Amino acid sequence: MTENITLEASVREVVGKHVRHYRRQGQIPATVYGPGFSPMNLFIGEPDLRRALAKAGGTQLIELQLGKETITTLAREVQRHPIRGDLLHVDFYRVAMDRVIRAEIPVVLAEESAAVASREAIAIQHLNSIEIETLPGNLPPHIEVDMSQINAVGEQVTVGDLKLPSTIRIITPLDEVVVRLDYAETMEEEVKEGEELEIASVSAEPEVITARKEEGEEGEEE
Q1: Residue 64: count of CB within 10 angstroms of its CB
Q2: How far apart are CA 166 and CA 201, in angstroms?
Q3: In this predicted model, what pLDDT tens digit does every residue of 4-63 receive, in sequence order?
Q4: Of the candidates 122, 159, 155, 167, which has an alpha carbon nearest to the alpha carbon of residue 143?
């Protein structure tokens, strides 16, 4: 069951480059959209918004308080400055509590494998999230994998092995591997083989992203 988080918001009349003035005053532009709901532009105070996003992620419900009106939402897209990391804009998806939605839920490794504890093996996580369908009120903050159930090299946990409530329908293929145990030496060899390629990719990626983001920021409506 998700824990609802409340955020005070106000209706936003200004759009385009005019919002930059409000950002400097700590008011972050946001938009709420959803089926059967006309998109609404809002302002939300930066400190409260930052704390709410850190707590809620994309799986916990956020209730936007507009005077006497409450809109139940999920944070869907968060835009940040590519260098400073400042919040620029947030999209919220309005949910209906009686309508099933689809969401990506983070996977968390819990407990400890005896083989990993004794350093006979290492855990290699293949999936960081699982796609599910459920009612908004049943969204879990994360999905735990009990690592104590696998204790030998080669053993693994698939999506089908996960124990989830009957209120949740798994969309990710059940035969996909979530985590498996392997020899530590195997992992070290794979890291060494891919090291040069990985370094090249990391050094190139920020430059491309920064150029694209900055270009978009200058020409963005907000």
Answers
A1: 22
A2: 42
A3: 699 999 999 988 888 989 999 999 999 999 988 899 999 999 999 999 999 998 889 999
A4: 159
For residue 105, the one-letter residue type is I
What pLDDT is attached to residue 211? 31
Please answer whether residues 134 and 169 qualify as being in contact, where contact means their C-beta atoms are separated by less than 8 angstroms. Answer: yes
Express each pLDDT in 161-208 by its tens digit.
Answer: 999 999 999 999 999 999 999 997 755 555 555 555 444 333 333 322
For residues 94 and 64, give the distance between their C-alpha atoms in angstroms, rounded to a whole number: 10
Which pLDDT value is given to residue 190? 54
- Two tokens at 15? 């759009």
**Which position has the token pair 């400097």?**
24
For every residue of 30-94, which 3-state class applies, written as one string? Answer: EEEEECCEEEEEEEEEHHHHHHHHHHHCCCCCEEEEECCEEEEEEEEEEEECCCCCCEEEEEEEE
